Amino acid sequence: MRSRLLASRRGCAIAASLMLVAGAACAQEVVVKIGVASPLTGGGAAYGKDIENGVRLAVEEANATHPAIGGKPVRFVIDSQDDQSDPRIGVQVAQQLVDDNVAVVIGHFNSGTTLPASKIYAKAGIPMITPAATNPAITQGGFPTIYRVIATDSQNAGNAGHYAATVTKAKRIAIIDDRTAFGQGEADEFEKAVKANGGAIVAREFTNDKAVDFSAQLTSIKRTNPDLVFFGGLDAQAAMLVKRMRQLGMKAQFLAGGGVMDANFIKLAGDSADGASVWEYGQPLAALPKGKDFEAKFRQKYGIDMLAYAPFAYDATWVAITAMEKAGSITPARFNAVLKATNYDGITGKIAFNAAGDLKSPSSTLYQVKNVAWVPVTTRTAD
């Protein structure tokens, strides 16, 4: 009886020791917050969730490796905030993430939201890496902590303008945009490139990002007899626009910029989608070494196909984590210096930043709808 009692006590002592060791290990684990800012409600919610899903996938993979930074075990957690695609809310979200002591922010989605929010992060010294906002002004403020892992409007819409004027040989080009910082920015850069390459703009109209009827603008454009219409805006409105064009008997080529090349456009546009063309950011994922695996992994985890920005959000997250690991620090001021010197082979291709925080060699690809599917036509990469 006594021997059994002693054995029982020894067992309890061992269990208690193990619990103490486990508790000490947990106590030593450092939680690192990665902020995510994107629209999770409203018209841009699908894109915002796409970004969040890309970040989450990277964070879960990183945690599965039991990472250590500066000799201490760390666990990455996501602090996700809904900016509602509203610049005013975006500023509030940015301040919330700063107050939450995030180490880095992946976001925002909309250029109009990113522009004011970026100033909040810069003032706090927190790196912001946008996987989606493309207005060139975002990285022109001289902030040393602002980065972008996607081509800018001047690069992507510039390619569209060059293509429209020199490849399609369109003689009469019309433009319509949604008057957001993104859509208008795209349209402005497209117009610059068309004119720089000898093309002629015969009409320019605008709507807003909530509109569902474009009859007035298209009727006005139709009078100018264009052979190409460019739209600066997102997929749902682009689909409604091209559908209305065909209903009005307009045979002009439809061309758009980023944020349009997805299944949603084809579904909403129906038969009118056939022949539509867009210039989208980056290279075709299926043609990149890690692209197909990422698509399959994303679909398996979330049960849906990704939209345009999940791969860029995934890469942005890994770029930040890699910089922390190389710097041996989760302190923004310390790992930001390493972030500047990034040379990372991502899902979306090579990531290296210039002095402004933009990609050194951004790419964009022309896609066209053929037989109810987007087909890549050509890719342009800046030197």
TrEMBL record:
Statement: the UniProt record of this protein carries the keyword Membrane: no
Keywords from the UniProt entry: Amino-acid transport, Signal, Transport
Any one Gene Ontology BP term: amino acid transport
One Pfam family this sequence matches: Peripla_BP_6
SUPFAM superfamilies per UniProt: Periplasmic binding protein-like I
Keyword Protein biosynthesis: no
InterPro entries assigned to the protein according to its UniProt record, in alphabetical order: Leu-bd, Leu_Ile_Val-bd, Peripla_BP_I
Signal sequence extent: 1-27
Entries under PANTHER family matching the protein: AMINO ACID BINDING PROTEIN, LEU/ILE/VAL-BINDING ABC TRANSPORTER SUBUNIT
Protein's name according to its UniProt entry: Amino acid/amide ABC transporter substrate-binding protein, HAAT family
Species of the source: Paraburkholderia lycopersici
